[in-house]
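re the bet — no i am not wrong, look at it urself. input seq straight from the record:
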Amino acid sequence: MTNENRQEVLLKVDHLSQYFKSNKAVDDVSFDIKRGEVFGLVGESGCGKTTTGRSIIRIYDITGGSIYFNGHRICAGLLEYENAIREARKELKETSDPERKGQLKKLIDMNRAEIKRAKHDHKYSDRDYADELVKKVKAKYEEDVKKANGDSEKLSKLNKNYRDDLRVARKTRLITKIQMIFQDPVASLNPRMTVQEIISEGLVINGIKDKEYIQEKVYEILELVGLTRDHAGRYPHEFSGGQKQRIGIARSVIMKPDMIIADEPVSALDVSIQAQVINLLNELRESLGLTILFIAHDLSVVKYFSDRIGVMYYGKMVELASSDELFKHPLHPYTKSLLSSIPLPDPRSERVRVREKYNPLQAHDYTVNKPSMREILPGHFVMCNDEEFKAYQKEIKEAE
């Protein structure tokens, strides 16, 4: 993959909020993932990592913000627009300035239009994408017909391919270009379906009916993930945990996705099997050009596997940097606390090692000066206020 392609932003998460009534599971989180990279998302249990992944793949309808994939807005929340309208209406009642009233009315109309656009994008992004694909298939077919020069045999074959391609294009959804590998390989596989049925389900849903083609694709993917053709007719209960996770990976990869969300794919596996699965993902990333959002607890695994890392705490992104930079210059107190919790292989060092504790009430004073994500170094962002920003810059200079 060229450096130019790696700089292309494939996924953009813009001010994502995911609320469950009063619980702010994800609160105003923004980041982007470049094509071909692995973006690690870390944090303690309950910090919102998995919710972020599930929101991206539209398992949940997001509360606020926007998610763009391959240039298309696939998710849109209404929170910020509704809040803006609410604030404008409140000010409209209080002000007597005619000019200001006119500005507020324009603001309300503008946000109403944004709500309408957001609802359309959220509901119809898949349909619009399918319409684009249908137009491309028709254009390609017209071009191929011209090249056939009236050859009846070629035209007959073209017509069959055209019908098949058109059926697939009409059923294709943009969101299927993002696939997910779930944390629990046991619960994520249907125990009543054979491995072949599990892996090929996405192809069948997408309108592919050729059974021989489906079977060959399943065999091909099974061998790609380290299993054999003989496994296709077996049921999930006949496999070990590591093999089940390979089946889950195969189910994702067969759809030829641009991006995979790996939600703690190795946390339920033995250490030796974890290494095998991580190496498999690395090989698939290189051979298929995959982009991966890697959600995990194990920071040593994340450091090995990820190009950039985002650290989440209580639903917010608190630090974001390249893998090397984050481990070299951790700035946010929570990041330092996470890194200090990584066990050392030397028992003597481990015995005397001091772990840093993070207490947000002691570490920050945000009563007056509120925090925001700020760029301390190129590509290194930290959630901080004005005073902390200066302190972090000073800390970086002293470290160098």
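see?? The chain has 15 helices and twelve strands. told u. also Residues 242 and 270 are 8 Å apart (CA to CA). so pay up
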